[in-house]
Specification:
By secondary structure, the chain is an alpha+beta fold. The chain folds into 2 domains: 1-37; 42-156, Sandwich (Jelly Rolls). The protein is 25% helix and 37% strand. It contains 2 helices and 9 strands. It has helices at residues 2-35, 162-169, and strands at 48-49, 59-64, 71-79, 84-89, 94-107, 117-119, 124-127, 133-149, 154-155. Strands 1, 2, 3, 4, 5, 6, 7, 8 and 9 form a 9-stranded antiparallel sheet that branches. The longest helix has 34 residues, at 2-35.
Length: 171
């Protein structure tokens, strides 16, 4: 009889523990839903200037998270035809999906037009942390970028960094 009671007690403890975990998971899901209660359609995006680490002319819209803080973020970036980001790297992996237009991507510390690979709508590329790469838009191009923040960009050639150009032109 003692064995049956012990088994029943153990089953109750496990059930209670499972319910507590399930309840906690439900609370986390509710918190996540409260933070992002509705889907975002393309016409609801709030476009603004691109981050200062990118050359002038880009636009950006934040989809999720905060690129300036630690944690996952997702943004859309819009580039005009011919827009180019010189060779650079990031301290975290960067996941890029082409939403519209054509993105030309190259790997390595120098821009080599002949080796650029073309990614059209729906194309995807993962740039591993610290991999030197470059990007160029062919036609107006919109990409979605997902990464761990804070967003940081380091140019292979420091003279390509637009943050340094703006500070030297304002002196």
């Amino acid at each position: 009889m003692v064995r049956k009671e012990a088994t029943a007690l153990l089953a109750c403890v496990c059930l209670a523990g499972g319910l507590a975990v399930h309840s906690a998971m439900g609370q986390e899901a509710k918190s996540a839903q409260a933070a992002h209660p509705a889907p975002i359609s393309a016409d609801q995006l709030k476009w603004g200037p691109g981050p200062p680490g990118l050359p002038p002319g880009s636009q950006a819209a934040i989809l999720d998270g905060d690129p300036g803080k630690p944690g996952m973020f997702a943004i859309r970036a819009k580039f005009p035809d011919g827009y180019q980001v010189p060779p650079h790297w990031h301290p975290t992996d960067e996941h890029v999906t082409v939403i519209s237009g054509t993105l030309l991507v190259g790997m390595g510390p120098k821009l080599d037009e002949a080796s650029l690979r073309s990614l059209g709508t729906g194309g995807y590329v993962k740039m591993p942390a610290k991999m030197h790469h470059t990007a160029k838009a062919k036609g107006e191009t919109i990409v979605q970028i997902q990464a761990m923040g804070p967003f940081q960009i380091t140019y292979v050639n420091p003279a390509d960094d637009p943050r340094k150009k703006s500070s030297t032109t304002s002196k």
